[in-house]
Amino acid sequence: MDKKISVKVCLGTTCFVMGSANLQELLEVVPRKYGDKVEVAGVPCLRLCSIDWEFSKAPYVKVDDDIIKEATVEKVLNAIEEKLK
Ligand code: FES
Question: Would you say 30 and 7 are in contact if contact means Cβ atoms under 8 Å apart?
Fold first, then answer.
């Protein structure tokens, strides 16, 4: 059967400062929109910010194994739509 899509919103300090606070909206919107097809959670630092801190593209969100840089609610929802196709 179809595997659930997993969405991880980084709530680590860097991402939080760079705007992941806005992304917490996803924690409500996604379940309402997709029910149990998508699993969404806030997670601690994904260790992506430390890799390219100088060019930090935080906040980061992971949709399955794909990393979304400079994530916005819209980008994440689009990524989910792509996966559901
Ligand atoms: S705080 Fe988000 S990747 Fe580190």
Answer: yes
Q: Determine if ligand 1 sits within 6 Å of the CB of residue 70.
A: no
Task: Kindly state the average pLDDT of the residues 3-28.
Answer: 94
Q: Which residues pair with 66 in a beta bridge?
A: 63
pTM: 0.91
Total number of domains constituting the chain: 1
Contact 58, 70 (CB under 8 A): yes
The ligand 1 atom at the shortest distance from the C-alpha of residue 14 is 1
- Indicate whether residue 15 lines ligand 1 (CB < 6 A): yes
Position 55 scores a pLDDT of 62
Query: Is the CB of residue 27 below 6 angstroms from any atom belonging to ligand 1?
Result: no
Q: What is the CATH number of the domain that holds 51?
A: 3.40.30.10
Residue-level pLDDT at 56: 79
